[in-house]
């Protein structure tokens, strides 16, 4: 059985990060003293990614200097990508050029770059990078590949990638979570997925991320009242959790809630999460509707 390098030293940090407990991940990283330079680099990457997950882009941009390691330079580029919408296409062009001229083999660097391409919805390039990544060294590479395959509705390839992760380390938290994602997407073991999220919440902390995933399991099983309770708890913990708001909108349709409730979530999403796929799709449809509406005039 293979395990991530430095898995034991960084176990609590990675656990917090994977479960969406980002402030706890930062706290763990700041108090951790590690011996090996490679472990220090990995620790810093997860810490700054936790800042990014909290949208604290300024901290990352200020902290990571031009002479930083390659791992951190690309983390900084991710923060720049997310904080500067007008520069996004240029950043992707910059990445394309770097990849054409460099032979990158560091799995941590490949993982960070792949995440940037996923943000840009360039899934094929992200997958190519992850295929060069040794998942034996970094299980999250395999987990990200699974997320991409699920986005592409390639459940067969997601299952295949999951089997690789299970063969490498069946008990790892990231493997357990990846299995739950696959079970949710394929719909064949939704209850198993629910119990995976519940187990992690019981062992660690019921984060907004875990609660939202549990709610999604309940929605898929038409247990709408249970889902509503979980989503409310998720939003109590993080009022800007975009996925929880989107799932609340879906749930409100099932429960026949007043349209004003849905509209409040939509307004909040447009305000705080305009790059979320749901919001992008909604804005595109609104723009198309307005364009078509201009061709029609009320009859006199």
From TrEMBL:
Pfam name, any one: Coatomer_E
Membrane disposition: Peripheral membrane protein
GO biological process: endoplasmic reticulum to Golgi vesicle-mediated transport; intra-Golgi vesicle-mediated transport; protein transport; retrograde vesicle-mediated transport, Golgi to endoplasmic reticulum
Keyword terms: Cytoplasm, Cytoplasmic vesicle, ER-Golgi transport, Golgi apparatus, Membrane, Protein transport, Transport
MF terms (GO), sorted A to Z: structural molecule activity
Subcellular localization, as worded in the UniProt entry: Cytoplasmic vesicle, COPI-coated vesicle membrane; Golgi apparatus membrane
Chief localization: membrane
CC annotations in GO: COPI vesicle coat; Golgi membrane
Biological role stated in the UniProt entry: The coatomer is a cytosolic protein complex that binds to dilysine motifs and reversibly associates with Golgi non-clathrin-coated vesicles, which further mediate biosynthetic protein transport from the ER, via the Golgi up to the trans Golgi network. The coatomer complex is required for budding from Golgi membranes, and is essential for the retrograde Golgi-to-ER transport of dilysine-tagged proteins.
Family assignment from sequence similarity: Belongs to the COPE family.
Assembly: Oligomeric complex that consists of at least the alpha, beta, beta', gamma, delta, epsilon and zeta subunits.
Name this polypeptide is given: Coatomer subunit epsilon
